[in-house]
Amino acid sequence: MINLFSNQTKTITGAAIILGAASFASRLIGIFRDRIFAHIFGAGAELDVYFAAFRVPDLIYNLIIVGALSAGFIPVFTKLLAKDKKEAWLVTNGIINILGLIIILLTAILYYFTPQITRLLVPGFTEPQLTATISLTRIMFLSPLILGLSSVVSGVLQSYRCFLLYALTPILYNLGIIFGALFLVPRYGLKGLAYGVVIGALLHLGAQLPVFFKYGFKYKPTLPFKNKNIKEILGTMIPRTLGLATTQLNLTVITFLASTIGAGSVAVFNLANNIQHFPIGIIGISFAIAAFPTLSQLAGEDNMKQLTESLTHTIRQIIFFITPLTIIFLLLRAQIVRVLLGSGNFSWSDTILTSNTLAFFALSLGAQSLIPLLVRAFFALKDTWTPFLIGLIGSLINIIAGLYLKEKLGISGLALAFSFSMTVQVAFLWFLLRQKTGSLNESAMLQSINKISVATIVMALFVQLIKTPLANIVDMNKLWGIMTQGAAAGIAGLLIYALICKLLNLEEMNQFQASLKHKFVKLTHITRGEITEADEI
């Protein structure tokens, strides 16, 4: 079993398929989690409390851990792995101890000041909501420390190109939260959700440890601040952390603004945001994570030609996959929301408000899916300041647009402001990355985009042609009727898209088919115990 989970993946597309499939399963469970939330609480004040309580612990995790790993640890560990494995493990120990110490100290300070921070974060909350938010936040402060350790382990697994186990851990995290919602909430109330978050974090860490130790890790209580590799990681971490701070500022301001719109607004925004992250996680983040070790290696070898080819190939794959999903989310948004969340206390008015918010999010699915890859391309080139500055500009645009649009469109206006800022960011990232690489093979990319556009237009027409008459055939007041209409229109649309892409001989379609075939054959060999020499490397 450990051998299966420690099996390495050689190609970016192959790794992305593994990550995408696992992410798909994880997102499905995440949607099931949100459906449970919606059923129990509806889009109301209690769910507002839960999402607001996540903000500060999530802030710590993203600033300290994600900043260090995405910008510094993985490139340095990957480089050392090829040259000096002993030093690689020394650096791993150092990062675990240093980041753990930072998180403990920071959490202790924030724990003490949680009441003051909460009142600043959600001024629109009632006194009972504030009290509950403070309580949940303090419980959830355990999760950044646990997930921080787990993320360092994940960074090592990614560097070894061991993506399967890494991709499965979010499923365990969500299962912990679901356990809290189903079994702990009836006994402990809202605190049960916070306990579920901590349980999920423990599962996230524990599942990876056997493979982590198999690779050769041995814990040492050391704080090597003077180590040059540690200094490099911490140095690149600073601008990345600042960049993530702008993203967290975005979310904090959105929570602040949403709390002033009315009860349930924070919940509606987060529920719609979670749904739109389904395709982003499966496509954008999966490809970005899969590509990062390769981009880092090519940048370390100063092989700019191959780096550009790998980067542009991955960009085209992302565009190929995310474009039809954007159409699905725009044309079938109400069906998606009602099927996923329409249960118990989640009313039709909640459905309409959430689906409208989802539509504005969907406008930037392409931009949001490309940003993780483009940012990692800068990181591979040891440039962490440019993404920070672009992220800062995007955050300012989001805040200004959000202040204006919330008065015009309510909570949906915050989603539109978010999409606008994401589109601006991807444009800046593209332009400045092109200055570094000299070219992103735009001519070849344009040929693919033209074919994808034709397939997308035909697909959209078919979705509408199927969706409209089905509404008169099935019972749209029943879950099965809504699901039948949405599934039939969506599946037919995707099949038409794939068919048109195949008829147009789209390169990305052919590569996807080849990768699927290769992965199927490889997994069949593993299942039968016929692991080849290449699989062992």
From TrEMBL:
<feature type="transmembrane region" description="Helical">
    <location>
        <begin position="318"/>
        <end position="337"/>
    </location>
</feature>
<feature type="transmembrane region" description="Helical">
    <location>
        <begin position="454"/>
        <end position="474"/>
    </location>
</feature>
<dbReference type="GO" id="GO:0071555">
    <property type="term" value="P:cell wall organization"/>
</dbReference>
<comment type="pathway">
    <text>Cell wall biogenesis; peptidoglycan biosynthesis.</text>
</comment>
<keyword id="KW-1133">Transmembrane helix</keyword>
<dbReference type="InterPro" id="IPR004268">
    <property type="entry name" value="MurJ"/>
</dbReference>
<dbReference type="InterPro" id="IPR051050">
    <property type="entry name" value="Lipid_II_flippase_MurJ/MviN"/>
</dbReference>
<keyword id="KW-0961">Cell wall biogenesis/degradation</keyword>
<feature type="transmembrane region" description="Helical">
    <location>
        <begin position="411"/>
        <end position="433"/>
    </location>
</feature>
<keyword id="KW-1003">Cell membrane</keyword>
<comment type="function">
    <text>Involved in peptidoglycan biosynthesis. Transports lipid-linked peptidoglycan precursors from the inner to the outer leaflet of the cytoplasmic membrane.</text>
</comment>
<feature type="transmembrane region" description="Helical">
    <location>
        <begin position="192"/>
        <end position="213"/>
    </location>
</feature>
<feature type="transmembrane region" description="Helical">
    <location>
        <begin position="12"/>
        <end position="29"/>
    </location>
</feature>
<keyword id="KW-0813">Transport</keyword>
<dbReference type="GO" id="GO:0015648">
    <property type="term" value="F:lipid-linked peptidoglycan transporter activity"/>
</dbReference>
<feature type="transmembrane region" description="Helical">
    <location>
        <begin position="164"/>
        <end position="186"/>
    </location>
</feature>
<dbReference type="GO" id="GO:0009252">
    <property type="term" value="P:peptidoglycan biosynthetic process"/>
</dbReference>
<keyword id="KW-0472">Membrane</keyword>
<feature type="transmembrane region" description="Helical">
    <location>
        <begin position="134"/>
        <end position="157"/>
    </location>
</feature>
<feature type="transmembrane region" description="Helical">
    <location>
        <begin position="480"/>
        <end position="500"/>
    </location>
</feature>
<feature type="transmembrane region" description="Helical">
    <location>
        <begin position="278"/>
        <end position="298"/>
    </location>
</feature>
<comment type="similarity">
    <text>Belongs to the MurJ/MviN family.</text>
</comment>
<keyword id="KW-0812">Transmembrane</keyword>
<feature type="transmembrane region" description="Helical">
    <location>
        <begin position="357"/>
        <end position="379"/>
    </location>
</feature>
<feature type="transmembrane region" description="Helical">
    <location>
        <begin position="386"/>
        <end position="405"/>
    </location>
</feature>
<feature type="transmembrane region" description="Helical">
    <location>
        <begin position="94"/>
        <end position="114"/>
    </location>
</feature>
<dbReference type="Pfam" id="PF03023">
    <property type="entry name" value="MurJ"/>
</dbReference>
<dbReference type="GO" id="GO:0005886">
    <property type="term" value="C:plasma membrane"/>
</dbReference>
<feature type="transmembrane region" description="Helical">
    <location>
        <begin position="249"/>
        <end position="272"/>
    </location>
</feature>
<dbReference type="GO" id="GO:0008360">
    <property type="term" value="P:regulation of cell shape"/>
</dbReference>
<feature type="transmembrane region" description="Helical">
    <location>
        <begin position="59"/>
        <end position="82"/>
    </location>
</feature>
<protein>
    <recommendedName>
        <fullName>Probable lipid II flippase MurJ</fullName>
    </recommendedName>
</protein>
<keyword id="KW-0573">Peptidoglycan synthesis</keyword>
<keyword id="KW-0133">Cell shape</keyword>
<dbReference type="GO" id="GO:0034204">
    <property type="term" value="P:lipid translocation"/>
</dbReference>
